[in-house]
Design goal:
Number of domains: 1
CATH architecture: 3-Layer(aba) Sandwich
Largest sheet: 5 strands, parallel
Structural class: alpha/beta
Helix content: 40-55%
Number of helices: 6
């Protein structure tokens, strides 16, 4: 059994049936679960989900109301395993950020990597593998790379 953290873009596409990636993401998640793999979420991906879901469509958001977004987030919380925030996540992130000299938006994705390290999760499922730094012990995988 492999443990996967689902990146924000995976969660967004899994709830946006109008997205061109909806079927790929939905099929991949179903395949992982039916193959006895575990899929995890954490507060950061849900916060990022909220940001994009409530942002207007004209600026690359979904244009959902806070109520619609709340309902989607509650469904995600009920559907996937939850990774708690722990004190060591900041220290892991800070070490990674300084070691890899990370700046700007990549800082958010690096924090996701700190979360998976803190919880011994081995894989991150994402539509944007290039957003992540190569770190020993973490496999960044696109849904196209999973046989579904």
């Amino acid at each position: 059994m492999t443990h996967y953290l689902l990146d924000t873009n995976i969660l967004l596409r899994s709830r946006d049936i109008g997205s061109p990636e909806y079927n790929l993401v939905d099929r991949t998640i179903r395949h992982l679960i039916s193959s006895n793999h575990q899929c995890f979420i954490t507060s950061q991906v849900l916060i990022e989900f909220w940001v994009v879901a409530t942002r207007p469509v004209t600026v690359n958001g979904l244009g959902w109301t806070p109520g619609e977004t709340q309902q989607a987030v509650e469904m995600l919380i009920n559907q996937f395993e939850w990774l708690e925030e722990t004190p060591d996540i900041f220290h892991l992130w800070f070490n990674l950020a300084t070691t890899h000299k990370i700046s700007g938006k990549r800082t958010h994705d690096l924090r996701i990597q700190a979360v998976v390290l803190a919880h011994n999760i081995t894989h991150i499922l994402t539509l944007n593998p290039k957003d992540f730094v190569e770190i020993e012990g973490i496999t960044i995988i696109h849904p196209n790379s999973i046989n579904s």
